[in-house]
User: What shape does this take?
Amino acid sequence: MKLKGFLRPDGKIGFRNHFLVVPTVICATRTAEEIASNFSNVVCLHNQHGCNHMKEDERKVVNVLKGLACNPNVAGVLFVGLGCETIPTMKIFESVRATGKPAECLIIQEEGGTLRTIEKGVRILQKMMEQCEIKEVEVDLSNVIVAIECGGSDTTSGIASNPVVGYVADKLVDAGAAVVFSETTEIIGAEHLLARRAVNEEVAKKLLELVSRCERSALAGGEDVRGVNPTPGNIRGGLTTLEEKSLGAIYKAGTRPISGVLEYGEPVPARGLYFMDSPGHDVESVSGMVAGGAQVVIFTTGRGTPTGCPIAPVIKVTANAKTYSRMSDNIDVDVSDVLEGKTTIQQAGERLYQKLIEVLNGKLTKSEMLRHREFGIYLTQPTL
Amino acid sequence: MDAIAFSKKDNVATAIKDLFKGQRVTVALGEKKLTVELLEDVPFGHKFALVDIPQGAQVVKYGEPIGIATVDIKKGQYVHVHNVVGQRGVRGHRS
Assistant: This one.
């Protein structure tokens, strides 16, 4: 399978040409948004964090901001810091510039306020776009990292849409692509099945430890997981317990061996199937996997959900015919015919695979058309 | 076809259309077909018992336990949060 991609200076392949403005701290977010709003093709991350974090959370914020800037779907990046934030803005900027990607940085306190920063930022970005060389190349699936997500699940997710995505995940892994799935909360009750698929004991152990850590931290926070998950919408959709939700959720990861277990926002290695630690919160989960390098997301839903990603196309799939007819402006692929017994999982999987190829080659997804650019970072510690 | 089960270990099936009390419904289990008379209405996507499930017994879907019956559940009865409770991520459970 040949695909049209864009070669970045670090050798990675993008399937979109976004220019990205990254406010490294919430105090710079308004200014950064104003810079981006001057252009038709510049995306701004709506960062709500970046200051007074404890160590573990700061690591997550840095990983995600740096990971999204380094994602090959991004052709060039402008960082905007305030100047007194605790997050190391200059270090993040320098590490991204070191990959060879066009990158610049402005500090609001040094520029002298919002208006001067906006003007300088707009001029910098315009010049960056003018000078940036876009190298179009023909590549194969071994250059692709696909993130797999499910959200707003109901029982149709476990019965049909997740198995259809699982078929595509297997096909991608066999073709040399990397596939990453996440949501630690939503493998609780199914982790023994995934651990059996780990390539070695170390990977199995790491996976089981993540699940146990997630269960313990929920209890330490005073919550039964079941007070939150399954959600009220999941329950209305027929899902009774977290175990039932998890057993249905893992079908989306297909059947191939699990090559590794990653921390939130950590780079996804090439080739194979990986699990990334993340919460069941869809936006935080997708942000983590795209920060890990995924260029495209396949997202199943039962109840229907509109969310996208600032820099990666998100392909929405449902097997709930009612949801598709009610929310077709948000959903790209309808596989409800599987549930009705009119189509096999393999046939619907081939249809989704074709859609994925079209999207990689530039066709916009519904979330891109409607500019759904939701962004969130998974934090677990108090802000001080 | 009215409902689906996934494993011969399953003691519940999932409705793939709205089903009603008194209806004799057909459940697909791979190539096999089962027939169950419903004692209650079961909405699209929700579950009913394929056999009697005594209080305290595991409720099984996809061939795996999804929770415990909190009361005796009769074959054909609606199975959901009113008569099943999950065992994971809850106080008292050790993973």
User: Anything to note?
Assistant: The first strand of chain B starts at residue 3 and ends at 5. Chain B has a mean pLDDT of 93. Residues 3-85 of chain B form a domain with the Archaeosine Trna-guanine Transglycosylase; Chain: A, domain 4 fold (CATH 2.30.130.110).
